[in-house]
Amino acid sequence: MNTTDTKYNGWTNYATWRVNLELFDGDNVGYGSPDGMREFAEILIEESTDEGVGRDYAMAFLDGVNWQEIAEHYEEEEEEESILGQHAYVHNYNG
Fold first, then answer.
1. Domain boundaries, the chain
2. 14-44: pLDDT as tens digits
């Protein structure tokens, strides 16, 4: 399977979908930039695996991830939550 060219579950590709699902989905993502998200993933892999082929494959898998897409997804989610929170506050304030 080519992990860089095929759309997968609404994401750019399988690698992007899988990394988002395994590392960020359901988490209060506070890694900010795409570079920060990638750095988090690399640190997680380094701290949870031994040196060798498995780690090498995991690190190589990260090359296929569209980090910008993941970061934008969470930026949009934060904006929507902020708007909904403001709406709830106004609704409750007006009683």
1. 14-94
2. 999 999 999 988 776 666 799 999 999 999 9
CA distance 65 to 62: 5
Per residue in 43-54, pLDDT (tens digit) is 999 999 999 999
Phi, psi of 11 (to 5 degrees): -105, 165
The residue behind tokens 């929507």 is 80
The secondary structure of 27-55, three-state, reads CCCCCCCHHHHHHHHHHHHHHHCCCCHHH
How far is the C-alpha of 51 from the C-alpha of 38, rounded, in Å?
19
Residue linked to tokens 């890694």: 31
